[in-house]
Amino acid sequence: MAKExxxxxxxxxxxxxxxxxxxxxxxxxxxxADDQHVVKLSKSVRLMLFRxxxxxxxxxxxxxxxxxxxxxxxxxxxxxxxxVKPLEVVATPxxxxxxxxxxxxxxxxxxxxxxxxxxxxxxxxxxxxxEVESTxxxxxxxxxxxxxxxxxxxxxxxxxxxxxxxxxQRYTKVKPGQIPGVIAEHFQQQSNxx
Length: 194
Hints:
The protein has 194 residues and is of the alpha+beta class. It has two domains: 6-83, CATH 2.40.50.140; 111-187, Glutaredoxin (3-Layer(aba) Sandwich). The chain contains five helices and nine strands. The longest helix is centred in the C-terminal third of the chain and has 15 residues, at 125-139. The protein is globular and about 50 Å long. This is (2Fe-2S) ferredoxin domain-containing protein.
C-alpha cells in the first residue's frame, strides 16, 4: 500500500530548531493555534532558515503530511517556510471561528523570491538574501515586502536567481551590489511613505 501524502499549511510562532542525526537544523518547532508541532525540513529549505528565522517569529509552513506506519502519528515535512505578520495569523476574540478570511479583500503583498537550491547557493544566493533583507530594512520595507526562499527556478546556470512579485520580474546572475537599485526601482513609492 502506497504512502498517501497530503499538503498541509500551518501557521504559528517559531520556537526553535531541533537537531537530527546529521543536522542541527533538521526540524523546526512551531506553536500553532491548537498544538505544538515538530516539522522536518527539506534539505533545500534547511540551510537558509537558521539565518532567516528568529525565535518568536510568526511563520507559515507549507509541506506534505504523511502517516508514520509504525506509530500512526502524522509526520510533517516542510517544503516552504515564510515569515508572516502576526495580524495574518492571530484572530481577534470577537471573530467567528468558522471564518478564516479577513472581512476586507486582502491586497497581495509584494514578494521577493530567492532561489535556495545548491547551484544558486554556490553562486552567492545567501549573500543576496542577506542584502535583500538589509536593504528592505534600510528602506523601512521589512513589514510590507515579504522575502520568500524558494526551490529551483530552472535557471541554474544563471544563478543566483530572484523574482520580484507581483510584477514577475526575473533577475539572473544577481550580485549583492545590485539589490539596492532593484528594490528602489520596484518599491520606491512604498519606501517614500512614512
